[in-house]
Amino acid sequence: MAVGQRLKHVVESQQFSRLLLDEIMTRASEMEREPHRAAGRLQGRVMAALFYEPSTRTRLSFEAAMLRLGGSTMGTDNAREFSSAAKGETLEDTIRIVNGYADVIVLRHDEEGAAKRAAAVSEAPVINAGDGRGQHPTQALLDIYTIRAELGRVDGVEIAMVGDLANGRTVRSLTYLLSKYRDVRIWFVAPPQVAMRQDIKDHLDEHRIEWSETEDLDSVLGKVDVVYQTRIQKERFADKPAYQAVKGIYRITAETLEKLGPQAIVMHPLPRVDEIAPEVDADPRAAYFRQARLS
Ligand code: CP
């Protein structure tokens, strides 16, 4: 299958057209159904994973994908300490050097805009695996794939994004992708301190996507197909009192599930801390571990 539009770097969700999204979803579905057909496709290729922030899913799922496709991987966790960044090397210089060793660079960084800076100096494709409060476009692709797999459609989906929307990069990337679909409706559920930022709201208005804001999760539970719960990102708060003020503000429990539709699902990019009670895991509507498995 020909891909309608080729991307060199994957930096932000705005790069994906609806046509490209449809092609990626179809291709991913084929690979999920018949994984052996893709075996060896990346033989001889090398991926460098440069992770300046912690990761479980993103780092290991990229590595697993590369290995399953016959390629090789190398890289560094905690790159601020274990790469020459510790000696003062700039991100741009590190990327120039890694270009000599790798065919693709997967970058997670703590600064918003880092992936764009890396892409600007890189011959090898750069994949943004999360840049601070910026974006996480490959998580958003997985989220769209999960919605499609769980509900059978993305057009017409009604979704509540819940929690730390100001600091969460996955909700930003997912919103950009959802704006490519028809008749989507989004509820942003957050207290004012961590409300969705204005640039995303402006984007939705420009694309005539219906959205609204509320602090009351219960008021939307009966209306939505998806509850997309997120962690309050402790590491992004300037001080402890600001974090304490919103910590634990939304918690999905068995009682929450009673108000949720029977066909609705609960998603979460993970890791979770305390925002989904363990008792929810056994409910068939808890889709977050299935979501992570698809990555
Ligand atoms: N969802 C996600 O990005 O998880 P990690 O931080 O573990 O990679």
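^ phosphoric acid mono(formamide)ester complex. Residues 39-131 form a domain with the Rossmann fold fold (CATH 3.40.50.1370). Residues 55-58, 130, 136, 139, 269-271 surround phosphoric acid mono(formamide)ester (CB under 6 Å).
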